Amino acid sequence: MSMPELRSAGTSETLIEEGDAPASKKIEGRSPWRLAYERLRHDRAAKIALATILVIVLLALLAPVFAKIVGHGPNQQFIDIGENENGGPVPPSSTFWLGTDNNGRDLFIRILYGARISLIVGVLATMISVALGVVLGLAAGFIGGLVDTVIARLIDVMLSIPFLILAISIAYILGPSLWLVILIVGVLSFTYLARIVRGQVISIKGREFIEAARSLGASSWRIMFVDLLPNVMAQVIVYATLLIPLAIVSEASLSFLGVGVPPPTADWGSMISDASGFFQYGYWWFLFFPSVALLTTTLAFNIFGDSVRDALDPRGAGIYV
Amino acid sequence: MATGQARETTPVPASATPDGDDMLLRVENLVKYFPIKGTALFREKEHVHAVDGVTLSVPRGQTFGVVGETGCGKSTLARCIARLHDVTSGRIVFDGQDITQLSQRRMRPLRREIQMIFQDPIGSLNPRRRVGSIIGDPYAIHGLAAGAERKRLVQELMERVGLNPEHYNRFPAEFSGGQRQRIGVARALAFRPKLIICDEPVSALDVSIQAQVINLLADLQADFGLTYIFIAHDLSVVRHVSNSIAVMYLGKVTEIAPAETLFTVPRHPYSGALLSAVPVPNPDLSDQRQQIILAGDVPSPIAPPSGCRFHPRCPKAAPVCVSEDPPLEPRLGDGPEHPAACHLPMAEGENLADFRPSISADERVVEVEGSLLPDDAGPEATAIADALPARGEGGKP
Lengths: 321, 397
Fold this sequence. Notes:
heterodimer; A: mainly alpha; MetI-like fold; about 0% strand; elongated; disordered N terminus; disordered C terminus; B: alpha/beta; four-stranded antiparallel beta sheet; about 20% strand
């Protein structure tokens, strides 16, 4: 599994450099974003990762269609044909393409529905943490003083508490639900992003174009969102693409520990958790397929995020002044 | 607002007092200290005395030059006048109105009247925004024009400063240094301000480009009746553009004079030393003249020297210079337009190299013998040289 990924990542680097040459030859009328897009377009690893992501999204969207084709609902139990004589899962067959789980439910259909949960959590939680991180980072870096001290200490405190322990406690107290998981993962992961934004803002706000904006009479809001924000967007986008897989794994971890999305909702984390007790008795498919789904998804997002970072790298040719 | 004449309490130089209405800007006793953030917990609070009691007046429609070494406070002065810094004390009177303490909100309408052109043609333009949007910023911020109207105004401005209006959608990185400075000029010009503060507008540019930008500024001044405060460390550039010039040293004005007077009859020994360091484009003349090399560095602005701040480096320094701060007033029978802050001003044709300070050695930076080398500069005598353009590129544009 990892070998071809590594190889494609290696070749992509040479490809980026080849892709640079035509991009830097015709400089005219190119925005920094356009340049980054050009690099991304020539990055094979990025293209493969993006294609994988699109396939996963498509499968998640088409989950009900597949359910109709196969004729199995995500929570439908097939006690008669979906379980063996001991009540255990049955292996992959033409009826159950990826086998069944310990409750006689179609694993394939459940993995597709589980993709929906993972993607929803990944995207929504990342949006929450980006919004929080950008706003708090901008405020801390730009306003400084007491605001900065309060936000910076808050971040320090949050970073000093282990994520899982805090998340489990909150989820346990408030009772697990999908929306709570999204909120927990989103709110608890803004810290690094806020730090990155804060650092960038502090380094940029001393530059003359900020002074120029102030001398024109621009308000602080305008300076923050018109002058500063576009200059930190590259870092925000890079970090956001890397936050998505992190959020997916966090959600799966919470579900694995039983405080995530409550059953019977199909969810990769709880599927892996359920399957872990069966693996040693030879029911390999029950653990294998949800794990592969989780691994493929996070790997695709991670590789794509890496490529985005390479494409937006300030040390790359021609992006920054 | 009270008119300028009524103020008797503040020591305004004679040149500023006669007719307040001719002066677009008056700066009275302006002080700006920056607190130093101590890393040690119980350190005594220290301040950088960036601008320490500057008084000057800028007449309407003229160019007022400010020169001085790096770190003498000229950029801080500019930012105080533009109200980018809050001042510690003193007054700034712009067009008859005291703007020293105006809140940012009350200051907003006045932003249209006072604009700045910055030194760094790269740093002063947001790299992530298109030129059209940068130049259109003044209109956007003050809600003066939007959409097609704004675009038309911006393109007019671009044409006026010699940029191709079709480059409206380009990014700053796609322009050369001179073109970028033109973008900065266009942005400053958008409001048709009364006063433009040029903070070393050409020092980052190639000499041939310097001339273009200076000529552009001169054209715009003629067309729009602009008043400039022109800050630079290149004396030949300042001489070329300015009507009168203020020389600054360590946060204080040491001398103010009409441009030609300063170059022919400098009164302050610092001005004299500064002028002797101006590169002469003619190598024969350059070999003949005597350069005054000042010893040591500019003293720390955190703890400036007592009395006259120039005394540790001054060849004419006497005990009075250590004890008393000389006021900025006309010396040796000069007119009110030429005040100097010196107890022992230079007479016409006087050679600074003939003097030796009459103060004790520990008041000075370096021994006299090492401090006044007529021709070759010792390693410690680099401060002035740093503040001036490299030899041979400072000729009149």
